[in-house]
Amino acid sequence: MSGVKNILLVGVGGQGTILASKILTEGLLQAGYDVKMSEIHGMSQRGGNVSTQIRFGDKVHSPIMGKGEADVIVAFEKMEALRWIEYLKPGGELVVNDFEMPTVPIQIGAEQYPDDVIGTLQAAADTVVIKAGDIARNLGNTKIMNVVLLGALAKAMNLHEIDWESLIRKNVKKGFEEINWNAFSAGYNEAKLSPTF
């Protein structure tokens, strides 16, 4: 890997975007990278927009990336992918959860949820679609979608040398270690390697 790589994680409050970002950041530090992370909250409680920028490499000077600079965007909710796609660089990859979780403006009728979001995204970028909601439901808990997506991201980034299992077991709530590790493994197995990395 050469230079600095930029990862953008976006979602809706309550989806566990920050937890996934924290585990990813710890993993990258464990792998020996210089890492900078910046959290941006619209309303971080349930229903608001949440995004995290993670930049890593040999030496990172700033935690902030600009539009057109993200190597990978991971969208925990598909409309959030549309909202942030202008941050993806040409040739970058979008990992998107095929899942709807309307934000507050949509819930109160101030915005409309767009039609055919996945089709629009696939026309605009190299898109990996993960049905993390279905995977999490099959494992027994829809709250683990974030860890499914983290697994998909780890695979796309070819970060196989990191001890993900110990990081996940350390960071998730006590009693939920096994199901979260299963979620990560399922996401990892579902994704493909990205040509970006």
Automatic annotation (TrEMBL):
Coiled coil: none
Claim: Transmembrane is one of the keywords in the record: no
SUPFAM superfamilies in UniProt: Pyruvate-ferredoxin oxidoreductase, PFOR, domain III
Domain Pyruvate/ketoisovalerate oxidoreductase catalytic: 13-189
Key words, A-Z: Oxidoreductase
The keyword Transit peptide is assigned to this record: no
Gene Ontology MF: a single term: oxidoreductase activity, acting on the aldehyde or oxo group of donors
InterPro entries the UniProt entry points to: IorB_Oxidoreductase (IPR052198), Pyrv/ketoisovalerate_OxRed_cat (IPR019752), Pyrv_flavodox_OxRed_cen (IPR002869)
PANTHER family, per database record: INDOLEPYRUVATE OXIDOREDUCTASE SUBUNIT IORB
UniProt protein name: Indolepyruvate oxidoreductase subunit beta
